[in-house]
Structure to design on (327 residues):
């Protein structure tokens, strides 16, 4: 099996690659070839016996999608995007990368299908940002898409394209609406939601963290490990069960910032919590007030998608995966 991952140098892309290499197979088929693409060359995975191509390429360049699809990958994990804060700050860049590049990739698949019948499984990393306030709690799976950010708008348009290209038989695709991923390892990125991770990640290693919003803010979360699980399940499940509704809100955990902090206290103690400093940021607070607080993910769960049940579990997952299993 040949697998293409766009955005392979990103956090989810790296972890997905590691999992595929560790498993050695996807859906019962041996993974024999990996094409890993990003704007910077992804690192080749260790201990993989198959063929690996690590490609530094800009997906928004008109030639790149066709070059990637010319290798006829069986499964395409489309993770390439810029994050919410950056998409909001740079309108043109957000639409070029998050929308135009995705349309280019889907169209390369369409043209290959028309030429020789090629039809891959496509797993698209969408976002809960496709919905916007006023929002019920929990948000039902059929709630209308009225995003209040450019990032959410770009993802919502891509979801429509995915459904239409699938309806036309060009590809067999699913859109995975990711919760906010917490705890993200590594350095902070430009995502407006980054503080949800930093107020846990930094204190766990004895470093200070800034909380820019009131601790009453509630949001929808899942771990990086769960995100990889979503992607793998989307790549192997029977998508006919989705019918025409090809985009799914994933399971997750609804929690306030205060509940996050109390989970940190239970796992790492008062000393870790004392490293969090509240510095209000009105812009981030306004954005958060329009974000989803929780979803009714019954449909996704009935199809076999799973995530953590408590924030203690999310924190312990981070400790296991990123800190060698101990503080």
């Amino acid at each position: 099996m040949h697998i293409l991952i766009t955005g392979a140098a990103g956090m989810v892309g790296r972890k997905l690659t590691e999992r595929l290499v560790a498993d050695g197979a996807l859906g019962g088929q041996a993974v024999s070839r990996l094409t890993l693409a990003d704007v910077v060359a992804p690192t080749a995975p260790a201990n993989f016996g198959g063929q690996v191509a690590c490609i530094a390429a800009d997906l928004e360049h008109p030639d790149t999608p066709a070059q990637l699809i010319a290798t006829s990958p069986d499964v395409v994990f489309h993770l390439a995007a810029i994050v919410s804060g950056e998409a909001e700050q740079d309108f043109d860049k957000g639409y070029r990368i998050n929308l135009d590049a995705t349309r280019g990739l889907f169209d390369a698949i369409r043209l290959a299908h028309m030429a020789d019948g090629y039809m891959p499984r496509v797993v698209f990393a969408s976002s809960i940002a496709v919905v916007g306030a006023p929002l019920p709690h929990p948000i039902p799976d059929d709630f209308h898409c009225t995003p209040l950010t450019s990032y959410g708008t770009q993802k919502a348009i891509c979801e429509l394209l995915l459904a239409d290209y699938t309806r036309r038989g060009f590809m067999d695709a699913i859109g995975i609406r990711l919760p906010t991923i917490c705890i993200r390892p590594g350095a902070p990125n430009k995502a407006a939601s980054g503080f949800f991770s930093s107020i846990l990640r930094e204190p766990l290693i004895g470093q200070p963290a800034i909380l820019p919003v009131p601790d009453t803010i509630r949001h929808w979360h899942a771990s990086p490990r769960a995100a990889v699980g979503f992607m793998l399940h989307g790549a192997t499940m029977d998508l006919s069960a989705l019918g025409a509704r090809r985009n799914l809100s994933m399971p997750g955990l609804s929690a306030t910032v205060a509940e996050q902090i109390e989970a940190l206290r239970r796992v790492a103690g008062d000393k870790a919590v004392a490293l969090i400093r509240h510095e209000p940021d009105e812009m981030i607070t306004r954005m958060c007030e329009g974000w989803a607080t929780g979803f009714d993910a019954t449909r996704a769960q009935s199809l076999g998608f799973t995530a953590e049940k408590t924030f203690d579990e999310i924190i312990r997952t981070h400790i296991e995966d990123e800190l060698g299993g101990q503080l």
Summary: The CA atoms of residues 117 and 188 lie 42 Å apart. The first strand starts at residue 2 and ends at 6. Residues 195-219+253-295+304-322 form a domain with the UDP-galactose 4-epimerase; domain 1 fold (CATH 3.90.25.10). The radius of gyration is 19 Å.
